[in-house]
Amino acid sequence: MKDILEQLHITANNKGVSTGRQWLESSGETISSFSPVNGKLIGSVQACDAVTYRQVAARAQDAFVQWRTVSAPRRGEIVRQIGGELRRKKEPLGKLVSYEMGKSLQEGLGEVQEMIDICDFAVGLSRQLYGLTMQSERPNHRMYEQWHPLGVVGIISAFNFPVAVWSWNAAIAWVCGNVCIWKPSEKTPLCAIACQHIVAEVFERNDIPEGVSCLINGYRDAGEWLCNDEHVALISATGSTRMGKAVAASVAARLGKTILELGGNNAIIISKEADLDMALIGCVFGAVGTAGQRCTTTRRLIIHTSVYDSFKQKIINAYQQLRIGNPLDAANHVGPLIDKGAVEMYQQAIEACKQQGGSFVVEGGVLQGEGYQSGCYVKPCVAEVQSNWPIVQHETFAPILYLMKYDNIEDAIAMQNSVPQGLSSSIFTLNMREAELFLSNRGSDCGIANVNIGTSGAEIGGAFGGEKETGGGRESGSDAWKAYMRRQTNTINWGNDLPLAQGIKFTV
């Protein structure tokens, strides 16, 4: 791992605050990053303090004044170069993501690929920031709308995707003409430092001013500074529903804008007309990928009564084949949870499920012994439950899968929609009518609804986000770029007189 860290400019002790090519001194406390893979200290980071935050914020505001004057295609060209650097650094950065966060190496590399993909998407977008032309009711008038950058965009990201979700926001924000201040999770600070080095080199090579890409490592207070800063036009925050509500309240109090991507409690409906072998792959990957620590993780299986027993047995057999261990070993399917706090929540959820009447068909537990010294490795488990139980309504960020039965498709959809969260959903069926019902306005109430694929693994081309307690925000593809800009309606009178709208007459 030492050579990987050197390639990414990670040292034993790192400054955690940057305005680009400059890394600022700070009196903030030290953040120590321990790998959940083996419990070893990877490195430490100096957290941001209030004084240093103000320096960063001021630099970002100054940079925006210059960055917004750069043409959008030119901004896109710079983002294209960032994508090129990420291609060159894909392997070491993917390994760092895997080692610091604990997800499998394939998922770590896949996360960096998402960054590359969003850069490609943003490059094309830089020439498509379109407006509309409308017909005016007044003669010799032209109406149209255009979009302008907001200014400073604050990005608060979570540990489970330590680099990809930041890039979804940053790449789009940059081509739209904004500057960014990134507050990463304190659980994965080194991934953020590696990305900042990569981006800063590209901006410096293109003679772009300091402050277009800023980084503030820190704890909750750093996020609060961002949210309460009236000069930060937009906060895009990823995390728990509890955190999102606090962010929304703070930003709304100053009439700022938010993009919230919060909790998910995602379900897959298994129809009696499903391809069960194909469904098995989607269900197991969705449930155990990233050790159940994705916001799109499959947490509930709603299975038709007629295929319940046979599909349950398929799940049990598949879980017995799972290999749990060092995520850098490609032979392993499941890595560790992020830390021992996550392990405690996993254990508490299992106990609550049992107390509420849950029957575990695949038992859970914490793994110990050779290879599991970090104390963060747990067994993915499966329980039979009722959909209205409190534990089923709650999102536990761990590999716990709940099974439940249904008799008709309307009941299955109602069960799917019965939880407070509304991020991702899926149905496996070869029945066209069931599929179309699931996608209709009488179907899934989630922001993402899939047919014959699982709940996780969203592509960057579609807008990502959910409804209800998931927050309602959208990131990444489609027209999500509009959230990073302000709309302006323009009317031009090219005639010789001044008629008023609605036929109003006024003379002086």
Automatic annotation (TrEMBL):
EC number: 1.2.1.3
Source organism, top-level taxon: Bacteria
Residue ranges annotated for the Aldehyde dehydrogenase domain, each copy included: 23-489
Organism listed in the record: Ilyomonas limi
Family (UniProt): Belongs to the aldehyde dehydrogenase family.
Listed InterPro entries: Ald_DH/histidinol_DH, Ald_DH_C, Ald_DH_CS_GLU, Ald_DH_N, Aldehyde_DH_dom, ALDH7A1-like
Active site (record annotation): E261
CDD domains with a match to the protein in the record: ALDH_F7_AASADH
Major enzyme class: oxidoreductase
GO molecular function, one term: aldehyde dehydrogenase (NAD+) activity
Pfam families recorded: Aldedh
Designated name of the protein: aldehyde dehydrogenase (NAD(+))
Alphabetized UniProt keyword annotations: NAD, Oxidoreductase
